[in-house]
Amino acid sequence: MKGSLPRRGLLAAALAALVAPRPAAADGASLRAEGNGVRLVLPGAAGGPWRLLAEARPQRLVLSLPRHGWQGPRVLSGIAPVRSLRWDERASRLYIDLTRPVGAPDIGREGGALVLSIQPGTPAAFARLAGPGRPIATGQGAPRPVVVLDPGHGGKDPGAIGATGTQEKRIVLAAAQEMRRRLEAGGRCRVAMTRTRDVFVPLGSRVEFARRQRATLFVSVHADSAPGARGASVYTLSETASDALSAALARRENAADAAGGLNLPPVPADVQRILLSLVRQETRQGSVRLANMTVGALRPRVPLLPNTHRQAAFAVLKAPDIPSMLVEIGFLSSRQDEAQLKQPRHRAVVATALASAIEDYLERPGLGVTSVG
Ligand SMILES: [Zn+2]
Fold this sequence. Notes:
- The strands form three sheets. The protein has a six-stranded antiparallel β-sheet with strand order 5-6-7-4-3-10. The protein has a six-stranded mixed β-sheet with strand order 12-11-13-16-14-15, sandwiched between helices.
- The protein folds into two domains: 30-139, Immunoglobulin-like; 146-363, Aminopeptidase.
- It has helices at 4-19, 123-129, 168-186, 203-212, 244-255, 269-298, 335-341, 344-363; strands at 30-34, 37-42, 50-55, 60-64, 75-77, 82-88, 93-98, 106-110, 113-118, 137-139, 146-151, 190-193, 217-222, 232-237, 304-312, 324-328.
- A hairpin with a 4-residue loop joins strand 6 (82-88) and strand 7.
- The two termini are 35 Å apart.
- By secondary structure, the chain is an alpha+beta fold.
- Zinc ion (ZN) is lined by residues 152-153, 159, 168, 222, 224, 253.
- Residues 152-153, 159, 168, 222, 224, 253 line the site of zinc ion.
């Protein structure tokens, strides 16, 4: 018994780390000599607007990153002409203290990073830069990635119907709208939805919509019927289903619309096949990573179906170039799940977990790729 307490503490800490909000971008900055000056790279800092100013007393550059969530280095020692860097979190400003006057820095975006080239300049030129209230440069930041949320069914297709008459199409629309609110409040992505009302949308149109939006991620939300099953589960695309339940779910979902196919560019069939398999391999890794993060975010909060991450040939997951997953937030065929899914409070818990997994994925591209057996 003695040994179990610290371990439980560790588990609690690990769970807390899973659910804790993270800064919008990786912290850190790197500085290296370049010519007579320095090159300063701020990873993740290009995700929002910025503004660069010079001040004469003390002699420094001030980079403002408002509404960012970016975390700079608390203090970083410099290389001349930079004396040191200091991040003021409350003001959302990076102070770049100087050892001598500099010319107007070159500042630009490289991927998600802001990059500054700072070179020595004359005192007169620096005095002009530090003139009252004039920014040296401003920028808008990179456009935010688009996440497409796809509430299943709609209109003439109610989806599954629970024992007390709960319709899947209504439950999943409410859950997706809650996810949208959470994601938009987080400010790290834009959200587009395949439907926002009770209308029928063919499966192929859902995939096409995501591709037109140039979506970074596609997340389909369902609450189907599967006899004997209970709890949330996550599905990624595979031509061979991981189990009978997944195969049956995919069959039923795909039957909602026979025209789930993709319009592929007009190239010879064998070229098309090679291109697709290359793109799909990468997309599949992204999908699996997203699914793993989602299971990790759901696990401490809601009941889960055993072997929570499963695979099957869902037509709606077939965009070859967009990491996609389908989440069954529960099964309306289960009385317990139906009772929970009817409650806005329970849906909010699910939506929060899904939104945090999506934000994690967007924040840490390329991390945690594992395969499923
Ligand atoms: Zn469904």
